[in-house]
Amino acid sequence: MSRLTSKLFVISGPSGAGKGTLVARVRAELPSLGLTVSATTRSPREGEVDGVNYYFLSKEEFERRVNAGEFVEWAHVHGNCYGTLVSEVRGKLDSGSSLILEIDVQGALQVKERFPDAVLIFIKPPSLAVLRERLVGRGTESPEMVELRLSNAESELALADRYDEVLVNDDLDQAVAELSRIIRSYERN
Ligand code: 5GP
């Protein structure tokens, strides 16, 4: 039997590419995969719970933690700050399970510098038109936020070639199967 090693997987892609759904489905198939809870200065959306979806911090508290060196990585994304806490990564990796970080491209490149063995996986939407449909359809963003997220999508897509793996999320079942396959294959190495 091949040996399984705990790995750090970083998933990025434009807002609306379907990262959250994909990751939730893959974790249902591979329950040993841990997920980190990020910190953000964005306000909670309806139904979001502090400590579950994110650690919702004030700008002052976020900055204090940046200065105290508490983040593995952090970045300004869509007008707010988002970051991964060292405490989230260290505790979970030490327990021997692989981890998924669902973070933006700036954060992903910082993680790769700090953990060169991290596996960077980029999720692409089939097209920008589909991305717009998904962002408008999910109804969580104001029209201005949809436009901001779409214009940021173009600069994020331009960095896809810095990733180890690129996956197009067109058919969800197929994308889930592909992402599970990628994760399993790296865990075997
Ligand atoms: P949302 O506001 O839709 O929850 O997330 C917006 C974007 O922030 C997503 O594309 C997500 O990848 C990114 N993001 C979430 N958590 C982190 C984090 O800890 N670090 C970084 N750099 N980006 C994050």
User: Percent helix among the residues?
Assistant: 40-55%
One letter per element, helices H and strands E, the order comes to EHEEEHEEHEHEHHEH
Q: Report the biggest beta sheet as strand number plus sense, adding barrel if it closes.
A: 5 strands, parallel
- Total strand segments: 9
Describe the structure.
The strands form 2 sheets. Strands 2-7-1-8-9 form a 5-stranded parallel beta sheet, with helices on both faces. Strands 4-3-6-5 form a 4-stranded mixed beta sheet. A hairpin with a 2-residue loop joins strand 5 and strand 6. It has 189 residues and is α/β, with parallel strands linked by helices. It has 7 helices and 9 strands; from the N terminus they run βαβββαββαβαβααβα. Helix 1 crosses helix 7. Helices cover 43% and strands 20% of the residues.
Question: What secondary-structure arrangement, pairings included, does this model have?
Answer:
Elements: E1 8-12, H1 19-29, E2 34-35, E3 39-40, E4 55-56, H2 59-67, E5 71-77, E6 80-85, H3 86-94, E7 99-102, H4 105-114, E8 119-124, H5 128-138, H6 143-157, E9 165-168, H7 172-187
Parallel strand pairs: 1-7, 1-8, 2-7, 3-4, 8-9
Antiparallel strand pairs: 3-6, 5-6
Helix pairs in contact: 1-7, 5-6
The chain binds guanosine-5'-monophosphate.
